[in-house]
Amino acid sequence: MIDVILKKGKEKAALQRHPWIFSGAIDKVKGSPLNGEVVIVKAADNEFLAYGYYNGQSRVAVRLLEWDENKTIDKAWYQLKLQNAIAARQHVLQDKQTNTCRLVFSEADFLPGLIVDQYADFLSLQILSAGMENIKQDIIAILKEELQPKGIFDKSDSNARTHENLEIAQGLLWGEMPPEFIEVKENGILYHINIAEGQKSGFYCDQRDNRRILAEYASGKNVLDCFSYSGGFSLNCLRKGASHITSIDSSALAMETLKHNIALNGYNEEQQTSIQSDVNKQLRIFKEEGKKFDIIILDPPKYAPSRSALDRAARAYKDLNRLAMHLLESGGLLATFSCSGAVDIETFKQIIAWAALDAGKEVQIIKQFSQPEDHPVRISFSEGEYLKGLLLRVL
Ligand code: SAH
Fold first, then answer.
1. pLDDT tens digits for 162-186?
2. Residue 65 to residues 68, 76, 142, 204, 357, Cα–Cα distance (Å)
3. Superfamily designation of domain 204-394
4. Second-level CATH architecture of 3-66
5. How far is the CA of 249 from the centre of ligand 1 (A)?
6. Across 13-22, 55-64, 107-116, 200-209, least confident range
7. Is any atom of ligand 1 closer than 6 Å to the C-beta of 78?
8. Inter-residue contact 248 to 280 (CB < 8 Å)
9. Strands 189-193 and 182-186
10. Start and end residues for every CATH 2.30.130.10 domain found in the chain
């Protein structure tokens, strides 16, 4: 195995179990490892630090896997890591009200660059590191053995792959091709999911807990669900007795799937209105029309893909939240989210404070939202914490 020696003083993060070695921290590479090859990372004084995947083309030059020198990174090692990750999700799946969740969450599960989502009997795989790409066949074999899925689908279509010099990949990896719409259950609600065409890996299962928590406030309320996608928040609120839901999303497929999902759960068209439009534009129209809502949900896409986009993203979050605040009845609730890792919760609160000032509203935080247990945050890797939200009372 090839040694990668760090510059003097650059071993601290690895010692603290942060799983990334940036290319600038490397002093020398004693050989020519291939992209994705497992290397030994050592401090300047030759002390062993960890094993990791090397990638000479990536800013993150090594993704650390294992800090115990006596371990061997072989199929049994991967099997144990996968078994642990899968076992940890049984808590999400045990009450049988949910059969879709994230089984493997990359660095958080000690498997950098591997994401596995369960959709009822099917699995969707996303591979984002050259190291994982190299052992994809082993991963598939282990998943087959551990879970006996009907089929495993490759949804490695993230731009993140380009950082690792990997091409976009999508298609059946093993077993049966999933149907166009897989029926899954979350919080007891049924959804049709289109893995191949859908966003993310098909469904935003990271909002499971937040949908349930928010819905507790929805009884008898007139709710506006912005960036609704396939209706996660809309359906949870309907189930808890919302008087009416308006769902907005710009994607035609999202709207079509939402329509299926409304019918699938036995709700009718009087209870829910879908608007395929740009949210900012639609909120302005509602303001002109003098429309008001009791609850508004804002779950926009990632506005800040990196730290450098933070200023622009902050302005976009502020404008969006200010607009929504104008549309709430006095004392109404705003559930506002950010899935940008670059925007931490304190920054997000600051942005909301600016929005409230601009809107001339008093705002109380009544709850804080985060990501669910199947998207754990490793204490040494705060980059894994991306989803945050606030439930606000707007006066
Ligand atoms: N709330 C959803 C997930 C939202 S993901 C759920 O619970 O499942 C973000 C959604 O925003 C996507 O469906 C995307 O189509 C939509 N979107 C992105 N930009 C938009 C815009 N400007 N106006 C309306 N929808 C937008």
1. 888 899 889 999 999 999 999 999 9
2. 9, 14, 18, 27, 46
3. Vaccinia Virus protein VP39 (3.40.50.150)
4. Roll (2.30)
5. 5
6. 200-209
7. no
8. no
9. antiparallel
10. 3-66
